[in-house]
Amino acid sequence: MATLGLFALGILTGVVVHTFVDKGPAENPYPALPKVEEPQVAHEVVEAIGKDEPQTLAKLMPAQMLTDLDTALQPIIDVRTTKFVGAVESEGRLLSAYVVTGKTTEGADFVVGFVLRVANDQVVGVN
Amino acid sequence: MGRLISGWVGTLLVGALFGFVIASAAGVVVQDSGLFGASGESPIARAYMLGLLERNPNSIVSIRPNLGIAQRAAELQGADTSRNASAITPLSLTYIGGASAGPYAIHIYAVGLRNSQGVDQFFPLALTIAGGKVIRSE
Known about the structure:
Chain A has helices at 2-21, 40-50, 54-60, 63-73; strands spanning 76-90, 93-104, 109-119, 122-126. Chain A is an alpha+beta fold and 127 residues long. By secondary structure, chain B is of the alpha+beta class.
């Protein structure tokens, strides 16, 4: 009983020590922009990626942007999941961010993040 | 008596280690999931972004892959030139979001800058973190 009590006391000590050691992210000295809803046009692009629909994607983006998208998704060639993580807006320019998981050419699991730039209800760039 | 005390101390230490590990794991889960108001932002990602915006390569040397001496020297030169010319004024730094899969975590930021010509720029930066280091920034 005493041993169990000591073990529990030890766990409590460990948790307390962790709260002092783990300080979290440093203070952000710069202003942060408010989050906005996912732009519909960006949602359609990412839906086509997630559903593996190249025909739809071809209609939504010009050739140069498809090349940029390919670069952003490297080394993933087989997309398994897509997740919208957030969007922000500054003076009419929207950035809509996504995380994609999938398989590389070697069959390894990988995760990448990419961002669609949106202006005037159109996707105007991929990062 | 001595063996009894050392047994107690050992139990206490093992418990403390266990508690520390549990608290760390719980912290990571809470951060990643955004539970209890946590943003999910990684301290490593934030430190890296602040180092970039403050043009201070020394502050991020421990959280990015090792570079050769020539690359580090060139980086310091670039940072000095940029600081002296006051070429860039950071306007905003926004954590958009992130997610993790296996050993990799993705953290995406939006950065607002004013360049030396007074033109405002607004662009994203996605960081990939693995093993406590930023292994990819694009």
